């Protein structure tokens, strides 16, 4: 389905803001969508990470003047021949970790006019596209395979999730004792409902998250100004558009745990949390809030509660859900010579690794 199709590339923030109404309209009726191709995520990311952006490269597709699909990409500073998915490719100490890279698309039956798409890439001298987190059944991967683009695919980790139907009771069983103890202690578990409430809770999320990571001897991601300000702005926009699910546990006036999750298409995605590691008794507040969010996902009739990607298949997430899928990194080549060179380098690297380990 690519008849009467046209394409346009949004190149800067000003153009992006003018496109807001059309983008929001498509997202509201799209069958293929997630938070990482929403207007809120893309526009706020582009604003906060602009010093790392050479140029936005957001491809829009129209059929008979109706917007039907968007792929949010960008050109990173110092790397003009490669496209990255928005929310990836940033410096490690500020990376926002967008996941499930995919097309925002009206239906999964739409396909691009490949000659138009190749002409766009040729005009900008683009050689390849880096997708750092993509699912096997994504529409974007389907497009890439159908159009026979050359690519190198590597497994990077596992997405853990708990489906709401059929009911996954593993998390409920793991938190029975903790939830009982929380009731005995008269702890309050609630959801952030207003911007004013968010203003009070967000600093606690930042503080608790940072204390936990520093206790382990690691850098705290929220101490990075760009990352922190991005989420300060994003959480407000998501709350206003009913896509935020931030829940917390309070002991009187003390916040002892916060869970920051996002409604993403048909899933509820866990993004960050903060837990007071010194709170006694240890009721596993982080797990209790995971269970609370799972119940929210059920009540909203969403498909799953998503724990996001982990490189380690045996981490704690495996103990609270029985469901996972492999996540890949994809380097897509638009130039056959670039593909051949990269493939040769990859094989050579693998060969020498085997020699060293032998």
Automatic annotation (TrEMBL):
Q: The organism sits in which domain of life?
A: Bacteria
As recorded in UniProt, coiled-coil segments are: none
Residue intervals of the BioF2-like acetyltransferase domain? 173-318
Question: Which InterPro entries does UniProt cross-reference here?
Answer: Acyl_CoA_acyltransferase, BioF2-like_GNAT_dom
Can you name this protein?
Cellulose biosynthesis protein CelD
Q: Which species is this record about?
A: Alteromonas naphthalenivorans
């Amino acid at each position: 389905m690519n008849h009467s199709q046209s394409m346009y590339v949004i190149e800067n923030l000003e153009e992006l803001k003018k496109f807001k109404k059309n983008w929001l309209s498509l997202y509201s009726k799209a069958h293929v969508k997630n938070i990482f191709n929403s207007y809120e995520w893309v526009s706020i990311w582009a604003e906060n990470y602009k010093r790392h952006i050479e140029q936005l490269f957001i491809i829009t597709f129209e059929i008979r003047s109706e917007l039907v699909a968007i792929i949010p990409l960008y050109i990173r500073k110092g790397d003009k021949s490669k496209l990255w998915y928005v929310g990836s490719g940033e410096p490690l100490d500020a990376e926002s970790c967008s996941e499930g890279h995919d097309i925002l698309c009206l239906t999964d039956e739409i396909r691009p006019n490949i000659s138009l798409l190749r002409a766009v890439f040729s005009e900008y001298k683009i050689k390849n596209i880096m997708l750092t987190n993509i699912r096997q059944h994504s529409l974007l991967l389907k497009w890439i395979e159908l159009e026979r683009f050359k690519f190198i695919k590597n497994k990077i980790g596992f997405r853990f999730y708990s489906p709401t139907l059929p009911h996954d009771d593993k998390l409920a069983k793991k938190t029975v004792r903790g939830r009982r103890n929380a009731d005995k202690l008269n702890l309050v578990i609630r959801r952030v409902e207003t911007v004013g409430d968010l203003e009070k809770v967000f600093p606690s999320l930042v503080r608790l998250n940072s204390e936990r990571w520093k206790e382990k001897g690691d850098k705290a991601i929220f101490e990075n100004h760009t990352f922190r300000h991005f989420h300060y702005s994003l959480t407000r926009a998501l709350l206003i558009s009913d896509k935020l699910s931030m829940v917390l546990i309070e002991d009187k006036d003390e916040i002892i745990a916060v869970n920051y999750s996002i409604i993403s298409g048909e899933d509820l995605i866990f993004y960050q949390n903060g837990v007071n590691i010194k709170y006694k008794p240890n009721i596993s507040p982080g797990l209790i809030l995971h269970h609370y969010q799972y119940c929210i996902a059920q009540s909203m009739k969403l498909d799953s509660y998503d724990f996001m990607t982990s490189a380690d298949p045996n981490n704690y997430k495996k103990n609270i859900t029985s469901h996972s899928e492999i996540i890949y990194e994809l380097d897509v080549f638009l130039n056959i010579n670039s593909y051949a060179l990269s493939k040769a380098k990859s094989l050579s690297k693998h060969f020498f690794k085997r020699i060293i380990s032998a």
